[in-house]
Amino acid sequence: MPVDFSLICATHCKLREATEQGQFRSDLYYRINGLTVQFPALRERTDFDLLTQRLLLDLNPQRSIHVAADLLESLRQHPWPGNLRQYASALRTASAMLEPHEVCIDWPHLSDDLLQELRAPVQPVTLLSATQAAQSQPVESVQSLQELSHIAMRQALAACDGNVSQAARQLGISRQTLYRISKRGSFTSLKGTF
């Protein structure tokens, strides 16, 4: 019996690398590999607030529910390794915790696990630790204070798994300052190695 269908796959793994390392079958990779679309992480999306409103509307079509401003900012900065599905699940849980008369999701409505993740202290990157990182390199390789600041930026971004907002908070600067400094340096991307 002939079958004609289209297959759409989603993964958080880098299948090409997994195939090259023998962790994913190459014949299967080449059969399913067609158009590859990469979506940005939720914390990198510019439409996070609109996305939140849409998810809440889909979850609660009869109620006009919103998220408290300070909580929304924390949710925006969260890494969300499960991306949209994880975020939608968190909003679904928080919505279920609302009393019938409540329309604002706030901190008490969150699951204990998410609450703990959001309130985990951020470990600051100090100038001393950046200096120590610079000292581990040959003296001639660290040429300026600017280069030392770039080392601190790399270290902060690595400690924050590429989360620019969190790294900026650790360094005590704004996201815009972090972007501006990175444009002056040899950074190719704030998300990857630079």
Provide a quick synopsis of the model.
It contains ten helices and two strands, in the order αααβααβααααα. It has 194 residues and is mostly helical.
Total number of domains: 3
Largest sheet: 2 strands, parallel
Tally of helical runs: 10
Number of strands: 2
> What is the 3D shape?
flat
Q: What's the SSE pattern?
A: HHHEHHEHHHHH
At CATH level 3, the topology of the largest domain is Helicase, Ruva Protein, domain 3
Q: Provide the β-strand percentage band.
A: under 5%
Radius of gyration: 21 Å
Name given to the CATH architecture of the largest domain: Orthogonal Bundle
Content-based structural category: mainly alpha
Portion in helices: 40-55%
The first-level CATH class of the largest domain is given as Mainly Alpha
The residue-averaged pLDDT reads 81
Low-confidence stretches: none
Protein name: Acetoin catabolism regulatory protein
GO molecular function, one term: ATP binding
InterPro entries: AAA_lid_NorR, Gly_radical, Homeodomain-like_sf, HTH_Fis, P-loop_NTPase, Sigma_54_int
GO biological process, one term: regulation of DNA-templated transcription
